[in-house]
Description:
The protein has about 450 residues and is mainly alpha-helical. The chain has helices at about 1-5, 10-40, 45-65, 70-80, 85-115, 125-135, 140, 145-150, 155-180, 185-210, 225, 235-250, 255-260, 265-280, 280-295, 305-340, 345-360, 365-370, 375-430. It is globular and about 55 Å long.
Amino acid sequence: MRRWFADGAFRTILLNSAFLLSGNAVSALLGLLALSCAGRGMSPEMFGVLVVIQAYTKAVSDLVKFQTWQFVVQFGVPALTRQDTQRVREVISFSVGLDMLSSAVAVAGGMLLLPFLSASLGLDASSFRLALLSCTLIPAMASSTPTGVLRACDRFDLIAIQQATKPLLLALGSVASLLTGAGFPGFVASWYLANVAGGLLFWWLAAWELRRRRIDNALRPALFSVGRKIAGAWNFVWTTNLSHSIWAARNSCSTVLVGVVIGPVEAGLFKIAMTFIDAAGTPARLLEKSFYPEVMRLDPASQRPWLLGLRAALLAGGIGLLFSLLMLTLGESLISLIFGDKYLETYGLIQIMLGAVVVSMIGFPQESLLLMAGRQRPWLAVQALASAGYIALLVVLSHVYRVQGSACAYLGGQCLEVLMMLILTLWAWQHRRTIHTDTPLEITK
């Protein structure tokens, strides 16, 4: 362990993760407060409808949007390292153009598709209109250029500020809706305003950091003219876009599928369970956000990034085990305290799903290592196979065993994905000396 912390890259990953943890800890508590107010301020049926509307909006956004933050990190970090300001400007402009294009397509697609799904989602006329309004939030959800800029610039402290501000507004609005008895429309309105403000704050922070670094005009959108200048740009963005669409079908659409197959009440229970599971898996996501920029500064043909990934995986797995034990001990009491006894059925779902937390945390470095090694196409194929297996499990088990089947499908899907990714990662490691990259020489820290 002493040698691990002697590695400057490993220390940087932990430091940046600590910044993010500060924001995410506050975010998780405020998010639970917002959900608690919504659960107590509405009937289980209306709470389920609110959850389905939010899940639908997020699912459409995730299905369509490009992973521009990965593009900014993949192509922007090497350019920042060699102080190529012009290339950094081109990378960010291309990323902004993609965000604007995908946002427009997602808003139009979400609104056009909603009338055909409203009956299946359990939406009446009033709820349908509010769901249409929620589709206009998609640009705030679909734009990931700002977080890519801040990660590439190593400004994880600013990311932590944004991650705490948005749920703070969400919680304040939820408390106000509960105290005033505003009901379903009040919660929809407060959640809408919080998402808009959070998205605008991210763009402002990215613009401020770029001005500080004197990288002017980077946020002006550009697509085809700049895309031709960056070798491999379109290949990378389409591959990561398809991969994230598959991820969205597997994760963001899960709550929507549960609502369609079983009903909005069970979808609400599943959403509460997923909230606790996401909270337990937060350390892995924080480590991944700081891990990817660091390995992009290393030589993929050497052993160093791969050993760094192994150390990070072991650390994350140990943390995941501790969080899971803590959730098993306190989960039932927390559900009763936060949501009330009418949602205690959720604890049984959490018990089933906690195994997926440990498995996914151990496997978190694999995506970053494969992208670093330029293996995005095999990674995409594995994502597609694993996601197809999960969706099939979710539909079948939910139909047969109701919401308990949904929890079992989640566990099985996570295990399948990590196992298949492990096989691909081991293959990439064995062929690491064949990797060709224009990434600059490693930075010694």
